[in-house]
Amino acid sequence: MAEAVRVLIADDQALLRGSFRVLVDSTPGMEVVGEAGDGATAVRLTRALAPDVVLMDLRMPVMDGIAATREICADEKLSGVRVLALTMFDMDEYVYPALQAGASGFMLKDASPSDLVNGIRVIATGEGVLAPTVTRRLISDFSRRSGTARPAPRLIGLTNREQEVLVLIANGLSNQEISERLVISMPTVKTHVGSLLAKLHARDRAQLVIIAYESGLAERGMPA
């Protein structure tokens, strides 16, 4: 039997923490190992408990979710921990900074229970997840910042096919959708994604999205 996904819940609202606990603990293959009401406590408990996934509210006292995420993701001893950032608003100015800090995914608190559970599962496997409205927000933000992309010499080592896959990841497509769009097999897509993660030194899919936008590749689109 596979081990249960161990989840730490960090939110300053006790009622929401309780709701998330009931949802996670009632889901087969998942368990809540701790709760935190502020970012500093979230960091301390993460170091003590090493959960698989931290559900991280971004707006908390003492230390906000972005700072807490940055500390967790910068700790080499916590390399196996993934952060799923949560917010009430898809237009939250914390969206991009949270992903830059190392969050593996971003979801809205009003997501359906099934979507949230699926997000936790995806994050736990080492992939990343972005709510569709958040992906559209990132695309819109970077489109307005045209010309601000920084040079990214790391992209020079990518093949044309890898660049194609990276652009599609940045636009929110799943592996299955990429397979259909490029007419290649799922194992081939996974091979390309694994190569991108290795070559770009990215923790997960969410970090690939950041690199694609910061480099300007997402705006330039598919290579010729």
In one word, what is the shape? globular
Query: Could you tell me the strand content as a percent range?
Result: 5-15%
Major beta-sheet overview: 6 strands, parallel
| Helix content bin | 40-55%
- The strand line-up of the biggest sheet is 2-1-3-4-5-6
Number of self-contained structural domains: 2
- Helix-strand pattern, N to C? EHEHEHEHEHEHHHHHH
The DSSP helix count reads: 11
**Content-based structural category:** alpha/beta
Name the CATH superfamily classification of the largest domain: Response regulator
Instruction: Give the averaged pLDDT, no decimals.
Output: 83
CATH topology of the largest domain: Rossmann fold
* SS elements, strand count: 6
Flag low-confidence runs: none
What is the CATH domain class of the largest domain? Alpha Beta
Distance between the termini: 47 Å
Q: What CATH architecture label of the largest domain applies?
A: 3-Layer(aba) Sandwich
Modified residues (4-aspartylphosphate): 57
Protein name: LuxR family transcriptional regulator
GO molecular function, one term: DNA binding
Domain Response regulatory: 6-124
Structure, described:
The protein is α/β, with parallel strands linked by helices and 224 residues long. The chain has two domains: 5-139, 3-Layer(aba) Sandwich (Rossmann fold), CATH 3.40.50.2300; 148-220, Winged helix-like DNA-binding domain superfamily/Winged helix DNA-binding domain (Arc Repressor Mutant, subunit A, Orthogonal Bundle). The protein contains eleven helices and six strands. A six-stranded parallel sheet has the order 2-1-3-4-5-6, with helices on both faces. Strand 4, helix 4 and strand 5 form a beta-alpha-beta unit. Helix 7 (160-170) packs across helix 9 (186-199). The protein is globular and about 50 Å long. The chain starts with a strand and ends with a helix. The mean pLDDT is 83.
